[in-house]
Amino acid sequence: MKPVAIFRHLPIEGPGYFATFLDNNHIPWQLIKVDAGENPPDSIKPFSGLVFMGGPMSVNDDLPWIESSLNLIRQAIDLEIPVLGHCLGGQLMAKALGGSVTQNPVKEMGWGKVTVRKNSIARAWFKDLTEFETFHWHGETFSLPEKATCILSNQYCENQAFAIGIHLGMQCHVEMNERMIKDWCDVGYEELMQLNSPTVQSPQEIETHLTDRVANLNTVAKLLYTKWIAALK
After folding, report:
1. Cα Rg for the chain, rounded, in angstroms?
2. What SS3 class is residue 32?
3. What are the E-state strand segments in the chain?
4. What distances in angstroms separate CA 215 from CA 63, 64, 177, one per listed residue?
5. List of residues 6+ apart from 102 with CB closer than 8 A
6. Tell me: the pLDDT tens digits for 52-108?
7. Which of 9, 13, 87, 157 is catalytic?
8. What is the pTM for the complete model shown?
9. CB-CB neighbours of 216 under 10 Å
10. In degrees rounded to 5, what are phi and psi of residue 198?
11. Active-site hit among 9, 136, 138, 173
């Protein structure tokens, strides 16, 4: 099998549990370190799927790699090669397909529940799940591109995930492991402590019962990733 291409936009926002999942399922993958100056490839042909991770930048920023990433996403979707986006990655997918990325009414940083939408496409991805606790770290949100179905929401951000056939774009972070969460809390400590909002938790709140919370989130991620890899060719 050709490797899955994973695009990283910040060293501490790597593939996390997703890489563990691919390794456990003997699926090869290649990390493209955009943060280290590696350019997205021109062609989708060397890869069986594309995965875009998070990052602190906006898809609306004037950065040299954004347009090439959008073009690669469009190529993959035209060729029915699975695309998966986490947070910034989901926003890249939305923009590539004609959606818009704008400020969310509030920042979400920390743990929070999301609700699975009541439609058949959501059920195909989430099975019997109706809600679960996931990890959030975003200030922007995407609109739904044409032909996309919203499959996940919460009271602070209507579009937490969308699906178009075999492609999945998420605003929330299901890929987290314990190390990533601790690193993000360290880097974002001042912002977490300064923001006085019910949607932003302190580092202490975020790291409470961390092992159990991450294990539960990994279970949800495994469900989504299992469906996603089934479409790899």
Report:
1. 16
2. strand
3. 4-8, 29-33, 49-52, 83-86, 101-116, 131-142, 149-153, 161-164, 167-170
4. 35, 37, 8
5. 140, 141, 143
6. 999 999 999 999 999 999 999 999 999 999 999 999 999 999 999 999 999 999 999
7. 87
8. 0.97
9. 14
10. -70, -10
11. 173
Query: DSSP assignment, residue 14?
Result: S
Identify the three-state secondary structure at position 103: strand
Does residue 185 contact residue 24 with C-beta atoms inside 8 Å? no
- List, for residues 155-203, the tens digit of each pLDDT value: 999 999 999 999 999 999 999 999 999 999 999 999 999 998 999 999 9
Q: State residue 176's pLDDT score.
A: 98
Q: What are phi and psi for residue 76, nearest 5 degrees?
A: -60, -45
Q: How far apart are CA 219 and CA 222, in angstroms?
A: 5
Rounded Cα gap, residues 75 and 40, in angstroms: 13
Q: How far is CA 216 from each of CA 12, 68, 72, 132, 208, rounded to the nearest angstrom? A: 21, 35, 32, 9, 14
What's residue 83's pLDDT? 98
Burial class from Cβ neighbours inside 10 Å (0-12, 13-18, 19+) for residue 204 reads: exposed
Does 150 participate in catalysis according to the annotation? no
User: Helix 210-229 and helix 17-24: axis angle, to 10°?
Assistant: 50
CA atoms of 82 and 61, how far apart (whole Å): 25
Amino acid of residue 198: P
Q: Identify whether 190 is a catalytic site residue.
A: no
Residue spans per domain, the chain: 4-229
Active site residue 173: yes
What's the fold here for domain 4-229?
Answer: Rossmann fold (3.40.50)
Closest listed residue to residue 55, CA positions, set 111, 113, 12, 115: 12
